[in-house]
Amino acid sequence: MRSYLDFEKPVAELEAKADELRVVAAETDSPAIREEIRALEQRARRMLAEIYRGLTPWQKTLVARHPMRPHFKDYVEALIEDFTPLAGDRKFSEDEAIVAGFGRFRGRSVCVLGQEKGNDTESRIRHNFGMAMPEGYRKAVRLMELADRFGLPVISFVDTAGAYPGIEAEERGQAEAIARSTEACLALGTPNVSLVIGEGGSGGAVALASTNVVLMLEHSIYTVASPEASASILWRDSGRAQDAATNMKITAQDLLRFGIVDGIVTEPVGGAHRAPEAALAAAGDAVAAALAGLADASAQDVRDRRAAKFLAIGRKI
Description:
The chain has 317 residues and is α/β, with parallel strands linked by helices. The protein has helices at residues 9-27, 31-53, 57-64, 72-79, 121-126, 134-149, 167-171, 174-187, 202-209, 227-235, 241-248, 252-257, 276-292, 299-311, and strands spanning 80-85, 98-105, 108-115, 154-160, 192-201, 213-217, 221-223, 263-265.
């Protein structure tokens, strides 16, 4: 079942007309109707391409949040063989907002981390909409340290509106847990690569994305706070989220220009949710290329390159 965003309504209308004609064509074998269907499909494709060439930052935010966009589990199923998740932080509990484990990526053993938002009401509640508690980040640290011990690269898929902001998370040391996870990323002697697949929100994203190579899908976002939260802070009006999105420079294209991310993974026309298999394959190729570029680096060289990357942010502006 198709799901359209508000700015895609012209495409929705054309595709709805084509669907109506398909019903008629199934009953009457008419060449004229088939030709009309093809013409409508071509117009819809052209219009979709035109719309997506000129997306605003707010529209990209909506695409990044699309409920049918591939999530962490989709990337694991498509790209990681023999994935074995590990649970718990060995201190408090299991946090299912962050899923972490080991598997093989194109024949090489790797550690895989990522936020899982869920794709229906039950799974979204179970995964807390991808907003991790402190124990989620402590679990990530535990697995990164294991990966470092055995010389395994770390791949992280980032997709969160931010770390969970509830009182219980703060009581259990949310800020400290995020800082420790960020530190663990930066201290790894093995290569690490992160890919922002939807929302990269605040410290909750940085905790898994302080990596040698930071990639973003074409229509993902990476931001210090959500546009709604930023609008509330700056103007005390969450209704100005579109203004915040525009002024904060949260798109992959802006962040690449500022040197904050290292590459953009092209999405199929209309976003990753329209052609998930193609999007997943492109993501796999990009991650593989990033890891290949670090294959011959020593542990100290890996750390030095990572440190130089983050210290250089802001110097290119």
